[in-house]
Amino acid sequence: MEVYLDNNATTMVDPKVYEEMKPFFCDIYGNPNSLHKFGAGTHPKMVEALDFLYEGINAADEDDIIITGNATESNNTVIKGIWVDKILNGDKNHIITSEVEHPAITAACKFLETQGVKVTYLPVNEEGILEASLVRDAITEETALVTIMWANNETGKIFPIKEIGLICKTTGVAFHSDATQAIGKFPVDVQECNLDYISFSAHKFHGPKGVGGLYVKKGSEVTPLLHGGEQMGGNRAGTVDVASMVGMGWAMHLATSTMALAYEKNHVSKLRDKLEAAILELPETIVIGGKENRTPNTTLISIRGVEGESMLWDLNQNGIGASTGSACASEDLEANPVMNAFGSDSELAHTGVRFSLSRFNTEEQIDYAIKVVQGAVKRLRGLSSSYAYAPESHKSAL
């Protein structure tokens, strides 16, 4: 049996989405910026896709959604755009973010530091959540932007975006959130949370890879990251990938429907909890950050005495896909930075394994995964020189 439990890295394209995309490869293939009928033929479905995107995040009609290549591009557009708009051309020189952001945020902020920008990296608490009060205390007259993820890609912990948004609105500071792991997991409302910008990526909610979005509230500035054409109102040059844009729109439509969000909350979470409970029956296993206030599909579990990379090898040999953390850093064998941010000891920092489910996982798959994980832990602990394994004391758990 093959079981895919790495949906925070990417998801399968929903077959319904794929069907909507197919005509735009060989039938309706004109450049949407062309004046002839081949180009104009793409417009109805592009408009429909944009409508789905607006509805999915509750954007207002006067706001803007820019189609990008991915959330990484969207994140860079905001951060570097703020640098141009409010730092190089203004009197502000400060950005606030957290210690557990995706590398697309952290690396962009590190780059700006080389250009003389001050960046504050706020810590998370013992539950892995950034407290809104820390953002309020960190804001100064020089602060140009606050950028905080909506949900953590490794732990699934949900950050207090609504509270932070109110703080930023009150202080007049631009607020951006990387919502990549939030959309399709729970309702995302940009108006309710007073957001100026959010980033998202289609392939995280059963859309195609290579396409993302950037929400820009009316009145918010955004200097283009890419110049060279008038596409997206001049905010993002380059011929639009119509098939992918249509796919992202439909994926958003399906993932943010009332029925889909209820399924995530009531069914996907139960499968996650079943897998998690079975692993926690093993001795010296913990859920990093605890079980509260997180997305319904994600668990990051530390298994003492078992290297995360070794566990992944065993799982892969048995047809199961999981992760030790962010896929964008999967080749980096250094200790998991999120676990370091939690203050994990040097051994535990290498033992985190992330399981992230989707609406396409079944209970039969989870039952199989439980058996494989339990067997792998027994085997790997038996080989570990750093884990004092006592077969008799652990027999009932294994």
TrEMBL record:
It catalyses: (sulfur carrier)-H + L-cysteine = (sulfur carrier)-SH + L-alanine. Coiled coil: none annotated. One of its GO terms (biological process) is cysteine metabolic process. Residues 3-368 form the Aminotransferase class V domain. One of its GO terms (molecular function) is 2 iron, 2 sulfur cluster binding. Keywords: 2Fe-2S, Iron, Iron-sulfur, Metal-binding, Pyridoxal phosphate, Transferase. Its cofactor is pyridoxal 5'-phosphate. It comes from the Bacteria. Gene3D superfamilies: 1.10.260.50, Aspartate Aminotransferase, domain 1 (3.90.1150.10), Type I PLP-dependent aspartate aminotransferase-like (Major domain) (3.40.640.10). It holds the Pfam family Aminotran_5. Its EC number is 2.8.1.7. PANTHER family: CYSTEINE DESULFURASE (PTHR11601:SF34), CYSTEINE DESULFURYLASE FAMILY MEMBER (PTHR11601). Catalyzes the removal of elemental sulfur atoms from cysteine to produce alanine. Seems to participate in the biosynthesis of the nitrogenase metalloclusters by providing the inorganic sulfur required for the Fe-S core formation. Belongs to the class-V pyridoxal-phosphate-dependent aminotransferase family. NifS/IscS subfamily. This is cysteine desulfurase. It comes from Poseidonibacter ostreae. The lineage of its organism: Bacteria, Pseudomonadati, Campylobacterota, Epsilonproteobacteria, Campylobacterales.
